[in-house]
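Friendly challenge for the regulars: who can give me the structure tokens for this chain first? No prize, just bragging rights.
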Amino acid sequence: MDFTNILEYKHWSDRRILDAVAQLTQEEQQRAFDFARQQLNHMVRVEELFQSRLRGVADPHDSTNTEHLPALAELEARLMAANQWLLTYARSLSPSQLKENISFTFVDGKRGRLSREEVIFHLINHGTYHRGAIGHALDLAVGKRPADTYNVFIHAAEPERRN
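First reply, four minutes later:
Bragging rights claimed.
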């Protein structure tokens, strides 16, 4: 499969969950909002950590979450920037570069090694997991949970597939 299409899907689904979280305004929805911010904070920090590893530079964080949670607008800006960087990066790689292994140290001090394409897959999969958790919080808060499956994305992007 072409990573470009999958990364466009990731960007689209991240956008949809951010928009849904932004709609949580009632006092009884505050827990879901705070939970969503924690999940988004974790997502963006992991994206930024792996971006630095793909670039071969020092990790920007020493943990995958923080006690103080940034505002939703900051999380949105960082996640959208991370998505754009990853899409541009993936497009720039040759098939042989995708297969190259990178070695790194996780924030817990353990060593790791993945191919560049495995890192990209990890980030796609990681976001899916956390969007699902946020979606569950939206359900509990009687928020609007967006349909964000690949099937919905591809049929919106390519409506001719409905014929």
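The first helix runs from residue 3 to 22. The beta strands are 101-105, 111-115. Your move, everyone else.
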